[in-house]
Amino acid sequence: LKHRRISNPPKTNPSPRFTWMRRTALRRLTTTPRVRKVAVIGAGTLGQQVSFQAALSGFDVALLDTTEKRLTTAKQAHERFARLFVERGEKVRAWRVPAESSLSPQAALQRISYTTDVDEACGDSDLLSENVPEVPAVKTTVYAELHAAAPSHCIFTTNSSTLLPSDFAAATGRPERFLALHFANPIFDGNIGEVMGHASTDEAVFEQVVQFARDIHMVPIRIEKEQNGYICNSLLVPWLNSALWLVTSGVASPHDVDRTWMITMGAPKGPMQVIDVIGLETVRNVFAHWGEVIVTMPRASRCSPTPPSWTPSSRRAALASRPATPRPTPPRACTTTLAQPS
After folding, report:
1. In whole angstroms, what is the distance from residue 294 CA to residue 311 CA?
2. What is the rounded CA–CA span in Å between residue 278 and residue 94?
3. Residues of the chain whose pLDDT is less than 50?
4. In the chain, what are the helix, strand and coil shares in percent, each to the nearest 5?
5. What's phi and psi for 64, nearest 5 deg?
6. Is there a contact between 304 and 297 (Cβ–Cβ < 8 Å)?
7. What's the sign of the alpha-carbon dihedral 233, 329, 315, 159?
8. Which of the residues 107, 263, 268, 285 could staple to 336 if both were Cys, CB 3.0 to 4.6 A apart?
9. 155-158 and 127-130: which strand pairing?
10. How much is the pTM?
């Protein structure tokens, strides 16, 4: 057979999508320096988990909170996590690692220090994970204190559930070294790390945080533009909001809302149980903030329509007075065991 010469097609400018893919691929090949010392700010539910997971992965960790009582509670939680690792480590996603990367829970406990002194926690840290309540005024005040104590090279990350990095970039005093690293709860089984910058975040810093997420055995999820709630909570919050509206409007009891979801979707937990795992205070803060924001917005600008009988004050009151939801008995056909909240 004779070979026919095929002329090259005319050159065209690559599409924006192709350009973005190429830039992203090159960016992911970039070698970035590793983080060594981590400061975790806030010893609540997620602060406890983040600090233990970072220490388990070989990092020195300083856990900072305002009272010794909260730090004692966190230390007890860490000891419980270490026992859990021994009992079911192979079944937990974030703890299933290659044999050559063996994890030692006892060594992890030795790597964690506990302090109420901001200078002691942040003085020599390379990366900081902020896990304070979802109250904008509180976060702004905390960032100012942390900036004064942390070295200039330290990367600040926020684990905020629904607030944007750009809301606090100026308060950190280092906007180019500030971004979000968001964890799901519990982070050991829901082992994702959603990485989201803002307009001023340095690209190399973004890559360092992506690598850090990998190093602590999270699956890094790149959020390419700012979004309240990232991916995880953009899906989760409307679901919880719908469940809360069904209860506070008198449509159904928390028990029946959970039973309906568990039976129809084959899920191990219903939305009201998920609220108990997250914590009523966190959920109340999130909905209180967005309730005040949404009612001042034109309806056309809202992400989703608000139920007609909903008001922020009634929602807050219902959340504050609601007792812990009893766990419904799973249907007989469901073989999934309900996980105990950590």
Report:
1. 10
2. 19
3. 1, 6, 22, 25-26, 28-31, 304-316, 318-319, 325, 330-342
4. 50, 10, 40
5. -115, 135
6. no
7. negative
8. 268
9. parallel
10. 0.73
